[in-house]
Amino acid sequence: MHERSLVQRLLQQVQQIVAEDGGGQVTEIRVQVGDLSGVEPLLFQAAFEEMVSDLFSSECQLALDIVPVMAVCHACGQQFEIVDFQFQCPACPTGAVQVIQGDEVKLISINVSSDNPVEGVAS
Q: Would you say 74 is a known binding-site residue?
């Protein structure tokens, strides 16, 4: 299950970012998961719930945003959503398309609460 290794790397990345930013309690981690990323959201969530308390409070939540697969046609420039794994442009009958979204796993944001809020910065 590669979701465990992805979650482990994600938590390490968040820990590093929070430490560099002065610390605090992580309350939410928001991640985008593309439909074509090969990540099973339920397994990712389960791995997160199992591993989060190793580095952060068990109160820390994972927010998963599922991103559809988008492509652009090399022939006509049309951008479109890939549905049912049909990698063909709906505007012209070509298969010369490039995926531009939906094949990634991306850290979007980290919500941190701090005991010592910095003036002018929302926690």
A: no
Q: What is the pLDDT of residues 5-31, one digit of tens each?
A: 999 999 999 999 999 988 899 999 999
| Residue in 74, 71, 52, 72 with CA at minimum distance from that of residue 61 | 52
> What is d(CA 82, CA 84) in angstroms, rounded to the nearest whole number?
7
Residue 60, annotated ligand binder?
A: no
Q: Give me the count of residues in the chain.
A: 123
Name the CATH code of domain 2-67+101-113 (choices 3.40.50.300, 1.10.10.10, 3.30.2320.50, 3.20.20.80): 3.30.2320.50
Take residue 83 and report the two structure tokens written for it.
């549905």
HSE (side-chain half, CA atoms, 13 Å) at 62: 26
